[in-house]
Each structure stands twice: as structure tokens, then as C-alpha cells.
Design goal:
Elements lengths: L5 H4 L35 H14 L20 H7 L2 H4 L11 H18 L3 E3 L5 H18 L7 E5 L5 H8 L3 E5 L9 H7 L4 E7 L11 H10 L3 E5 L12 H4 L3 E3 L2 H4 L14 E3 L11 E6 L8 E5 L15 H37 L15 E4 L10 H10 L6 E2 L8 E4 L7 H20 L1 H5 L12 H6 L12
Parallel strand pairs: 2-3, 2-4, 4-5, 5-6
Antiparallel strand pairs: 1-7, 6-7, 8-9, 10-12, 11-12
The structure holds pyridoxal-5'-phosphate.
Length: about 475
């Protein structure tokens, strides 16, 4: 099945616009500018509106349905965030305007920096990085700069647990660090013996995701931090899973030295095709001098008559700028609005509900699907997409079948240490009815795996396109269809 293209709808002579009568003399275009071979469709306005409205409805998004894509925190993006981001006072400013003329924008960034510091227990925050992976890169640059500033040049080893997100080793390797993997223990924690074996005087640090990508809070996190610090290394926190611990645990209090936030996950700014991300980085007091600059600060305290003046400062040993201008300001506005509308107690409730929702779903699926680590989970959990007595069924088949039931699939085949992993993150914004509907379908699919496995193997059956050859789709990108490429 494929969707009709605009050209297929074309009908000779049909028009969507009417030009005013020409009031200047006609003249011919220079030779060659007018091409007769372009397949430009001839359509009425209503044809065009219906076509694009129809296409927009083919898109699955958080505004259309449940989106339990583990590790991505696909929570609902409140529309009040969008209203705030569209305020003309924000959209009409330019990043190069004199600071005196953009005090409101700077106040917002200053407070957002402070709120992130407070909520995560850090001494400094940069809002520049464009996404989590970019924050990771910034954090590793900071760790590297810290060691270099002390003249400790041989510290180039970064330890990364085997449950980590692929961006962790990728960012470290990009910066020329030597990546060493440590395995997880039987309860899904960092294996302490494996960790100790890697700790020596070449250790720059560890990249730790806590709660980790198995959805588990590391039971020895304080010990992990102690071991790494004792060896002279620093602890990088991958904050992608911060949605599980808002207002409950402050990473800085755990001894984490530097961490990125994913505003587009935890603080509800849209992502996954919905817009740019934002990956601010927080650091402890030992690292504030290395933060990228410029940062927003109060540059003149003011007095009884004059309010404080906000401006930009660059830390003493800054690793430099990592992003043009000041990061994705529109995302800062959305995250700020979100935090403001929830307040401190509300943010804690966000995490409590996210964890409760995940454990509720986990309880409903326990016994139907295999759990590689059967512990109380945090905001997400991992099941195995292998069913006893249905050896030909894989995680991918279950995910594709979910689409027939109008659910977005969970994350597939990640984390890598779980065979046939399906990683489910319901988020706090879903009702019990939605969670139950999803659990009912997951249980039904597990039955179908035995009674009608071909339904799973050939799924999806009722989506605009059927099962794709994903390798081919990635290798032979077709980004534009229906229009012949311009020669
Ligand atoms: C999403 C994610 C990242 C990367 O964040 P982006 O904003 O997508 O670059 C890193 N680690 C984990 C665990 C994640 O879930």
C-alpha cells in the first residue's frame, strides 16, 4: 500500500490560486529558465489541504497515542510550554542583541541554570549543549580539561558499563579517550570487582547512568563513586533517566561530578521529530571553572532603584564554546515553563508517578514475559521478547504487532546485554486506563505468538506501510518522493 502523491491527484488546468490581473507589460523569460519537463501537479486548494492534512494524520506521535519508547521519556508535552515559547518577546529577539535589551530572556536562562543546579545538586550549569549526546561530549571535555589543568596527562581511560547507551562510548571515543567496558552483575548493577580491576592512574573517569538503562537504581552507586574517586577519576552522570528521581535524589549528593540533563526527556520539551533537543550540563564545585562559556550571570547587582543586570561571563579555564549563540533557547523557555507550572513538589510527584506507572505495568506483564532482572524498577523496565514455546517469535515481531493495535512499540534490542530486549517506559502522563489497554494487548500478543504466530511475523497489517527492510531504509535513504530530482 502506498499513499497517493500530489502528482497522482493532478488534473490539467486545475488551480489553487488566482493571480490579480497583470498591470505591467508581459515579457518572455530568458531562454532555459522555464522548464516544461517538471512534473508540477495542478491542484485546487482543497486538494492540497486534504492531501497534507491526510499525510499529517499518518504520523504517530505523543499527541495521538501511547508512546512507551524506553530511555526516551516520551511524556506528553504540555501545550502551555508552546504558548510560552511563542510569546513575541521571546521569538522576536536576536542572540546578538545588546544584553540591556534582552534582560527577560537572560533572567529566564539564569533561573533555569539555577533550578537545574538546585534540583540536581550542582554548583554550575551550562545551557549550551544541543542534546544529551552533545552534553556528554561537553562533560568529557570538562573531565579531560580538569586532569590536564592538574598536569595529569596520562588520564585518558573512560570506564563505561555494558548497559550504557551507545552515545557514551561514542562521545568518549570522539574525544580521543580510551573506552573500557565493565560488565553488570547478576542484579543489573555495575560489577564492583570488574570496576576495581580497571581503576589505575590512567583513569579519567566513569560514565554512569543511574537509574541505568535496565530501569534499575544501582544498589552500590555510592561505592562506585568512592572507588572511582579513590583512583583519581571523575564520575560523569548520564542524566537521561533523571525523570525517575526528581526531587528524590540529587546526583550531586551522590558524588557525581558532571551530568547532562535531557530537557527534551525530563522536562517535556518535544523530541523525536518534534524539534531540537537541549542537553544542559551541570558540574560540581571542582569543575565550574571549566564550563563552556558564556554563561548567564548577574554582572551588576543593582541597587534600590535599579534591578540587577544580567549578562554573560566565561569561566576562567573554560573548555570554550560548544554551540552557536546560547543553545536552543526555545527549549529553555519550554523547560522553564514546565518547571514553573509544576513547582518543586509537583516535580517530585512527576517522578513518583513515573515510577509507579512503570511498576504497575511491570506487575501486569510479570509471568507473561520473561524479566532478565526481576527487581522493583524505576521509571522503566526491560522484558525479553522471547516467549517459551514460540521460538520463532522475536522482540521485533511483538513490536510490529503492537502497531496493529495502535501503540508505538517500546525500544527494541537495547540495552544490548538483554537478549531480545523490549524496554518499556510508560511515563507519568498516562492514565491507568491506557496502561491497562497496553498491558491487555501485550498479553494478547503473547497468546497470538502461540495460536497465530504468522500474525506477528507479518505484522504490521494495517499501517500505511508494512514491514520495512530497516537496513535498506537506512542505507538507501529516499527523502523525497514523487518529485523527480532536479538535474
Ligand atoms: C537519550 C539518551 C542519551 C542521548 O541523549 P540525546 O538527547 O538523544 O542525544 C544518552 N543516554 C541515554 C541513557 C539516553 O536514553
Amino acid at each position: 500500500m502506498s499513499e497517493p502523491q500530489l502528482c497522482d491527484l493532478s488534473s490539467s488546468g486545475r488551480r489553487g490560486v488566482r493571480f490579480p490581473t497583470c498591470d505591467v507589460p508581459f515579457s518572455d523569460l530568458p531562454e532555459g529558465l522555464l522548464r516544461q519537463d517538471l512534473p508540477l501537479p495542478e491542484l485546487s486548494e482543497v486538494d492540497v489541504v486534504r492531501h497534507f492534512t491526510h499525510l499529517s494524520q499518518l504520523n504517530y506521535g505523543i499527541d495521538t497515542g501511547f508512546y512507551p519508547l524506553g530511555s526516551c521519556t516520551m511524556k506528553y508535552n504540555p501545550k502551555v510550554n508552546e504558548e510560552a515559547a511563542r510569546l513575541p518577546g521571546f521569538t522576536g529577539t536576536h542572540p546578538l542583541q545588546p544584553v540591556e535589551t534582552v534582560q527577560g530572556n537572560l533572567l529566564l536562562m539564569y533561573e533555569l541554570q539555577n533550578w537545574l543546579k538546585e534540583i540536581a545538586g550542582f554548583a554550575g550549569v551550562t545551557l549550551q549543549p544541543a542534546a544529551g549526546a552533545h552534553g556528554e561530549m561537553t562533560g568529557i571535555m570538562i573531565i579531560h580539561a580538569y586532569h590536564v589543568a592538574r598536569g595529569d596527562l596520562k588520564r585518558t581511560k573512560i570506564i563505561i558499563p555494558d548497559s550504557a547507551h551507545g552515545t557514551n562510548p561514542a562521545t568518549s571515543a570522539m574525544l580521543g579517550m580510551q573506552v573500557v567496558e565493565v560488565k553488570s552483575d547478576s542484579r543489573g548493577n555495575v560489577d564492583l570487582e570488574a570496576l576495581k580491576a580497571q581503576c589505575d592512574d590512567t583513569l579519567a573517569g566513569i560514565m554512569l547512568t543511574n537509574p541505568n538503562t535496565l530501569g534499575l537504581f544501582d544498589e552500590h552507586v555510592l561505592e562506585v563513586v568512592r572507588i572511582v574517586h579513590a583512583a583519581g577519576g571523575l564520575v560523569y552522570g548520564d542524566g537521561a533517566n533523571f525523570n525517575a528521581i526528581l526531587g528524590i535524589v540529587r546526583p550531586g549528593d551522590l558524588g557525581i561530578d558532571v551530568m547532562h540533563f535531557n530537557l527534551h526527556k525530563t522536562f517535556s520539551t518535544p523530541h523525536g521529530g518534534g524539534g531540537p533537543g537541549s542537553g544542559p550540563v551541570g558540574v560540581g564545585a571542582n569543575l565550574v571553572d571549566f564550563l563552556p562559556g558564556p554563561l548567564v550571570d548577574i554582572i551588576d547587582a543593582g541597587d534600590d532603584e535599579n534591578p540587577p543586570l544580567y549578562g554573560f561571563v566565561t569561566p576562567r579555564l573554560s573548555v570554550g564554546r560548544v554551540k552557536a549563540f546560547h543553545g536552543h533557547f526555545g527549549m529553555h523557555v519550554r523547560a522553564y515553563t514546565y518547571m514553573l507550572s509544576y513547582g518543586g513538589a509537583g516535580l517530585r510527584q512527576v517522578s513518583e508517578t513515573a515510577v509507579l506507572n512503570a511498576n504497575y505495568l511491570l506487575a501486569r506483564l510479570r509471568g507473561v514475559y520473561k524479566l532478565p532482572y526481576d527487581r522493583t524498577c524505576m521509571h522503566e523496565f526491560v522484558i525479553e521478547g522471547h516467549l517459551e514455546g514460540a521460538p520463532e517469535i522475536h522482540a521485533l515481531d511483538i513490536s510490529k504487532r503492537l502497531m496493529d493495535y495502535k501503540f508505538h512499540p517500546p525500544t527494541n534490542y537495547f540495552p544490548l546485554i538483554v537478549p531480545e530486549a523490549l524496554m518499556i517506559e510508560p511515563t507519568e502522563t498516562e492514565s491507568q486506563q491506557t496502561l491497562d489497554a497496553f498491558a491487555d494487548v501485550m498479553i494478547k500478543i503473547a497468546e497470538e505468538a502461540h495460536t497465530a504466530p504468522e500474525l506477528l511475523k507479518n505484522a504490521p497489517h494495517n499501517t500505511p506501510v508494512g514491514r520495512l527492510d530497516e537496513v535498506k531504509a537506512a542505507k538507501e535513504l529516499v527523502l523525497c518522493c514523487g518529485v523527480a530530482p532536479l538535474a
